[in-house]
Amino acid sequence: MPSMDSxxxxxxxxxxxxxxxxxxxxxxxxxxxxxxxxxxxxxxPYGGWEEGALKARLIRxxxxxxxxxxxxxxxxxxxxxxxxxxxxxxxAYPRMRFxxxxxxxxxxxxxxxxxxxxxxxxxxxxxxxYTRGLIQSFASRCEVQLVGSANLARxxxxxxxxxxxxxxxVRAEMAPCFVEKNGRRTDIVVLACTHYPFLANVFxxxxxxxxxxxxxxxxxxxxxxxxxxxxxxxxxxxxxSVAVFTGGSPDAVTRRLMEGLGLxxxx
Length: 267
Ligand code: DGL
What we know:
By secondary structure, the chain is α/β, with parallel strands linked by helices. The protein folds into two domains: about 5-100 and about 220-265, 3-Layer(aba) Sandwich (Rossmann fold); about 105-215, Rossmann fold (3-Layer(aba) Sandwich). The protein has helices at about 20-30, 50-70, 80-90, 105-110, 125, 130-140, 150-160, 165-175, 200-205, 215-225, 250-260, and strands at about 10-15, 35-40, 75, 100, 115-120, 145-150, 180, 185, 190, 210-215, 240-245, 265. α1 crosses α10 (about 215-225), α2 crosses α3 and α4 runs parallel beside α6.
């Protein structure tokens, strides 16, 4: 008999389409799994929310999601949400396993050669005590530039849906990531918002010099897979993976985007 877990969906959560950067890696690693993608688009963008209000929203929303969908595991594919509420979610729902997304400061500190690293994130993630804690624990010997962008997540949402990008605006948002000091230059930029990997090629093209852009999506997907029992192909569910938008029915472009990724949009 397959374990009950094998028929339950893996829930991947974000405020918008950013979590799809994690979902696409998770699907490659776990093709036999059924996924449930939750976009809290009625709360998007999370970057500017007041901390107490966002935390309360997430605790309440997860109460409903766990009750309605009974997932095998939850991947919080959102730095802004997890750095704020990861510990509270685990405390509120101790029977559920949560895989989080946090700024990849530790691997950046291990890899940098110049000692200058930048963290490109939402204003919320930049403000978090959690993020400061990561810097103190893992990057105390580096100079870490925290860059909070109020606009990039929204730009990524528009770009992924086929909208045009104001390159001068993108350049202005990313400019503070590039620091030159005593003959040294930033050599790593951590993409600490799951929306940003969608813009990685644009960032590369507009960067004043080449850097490594660190995207933790694959590591998160690997972590999720390590916590789930393997599912034999013959016990694979035939049910489709589904995307749910908290705002209700998304527009036709978003719907096509989801369908292109193999997700049926719940009405
Ligand atoms: N994708 C989210 C993150 O990883 C945040 C985007 C937003 O809602 O501002 O931080």
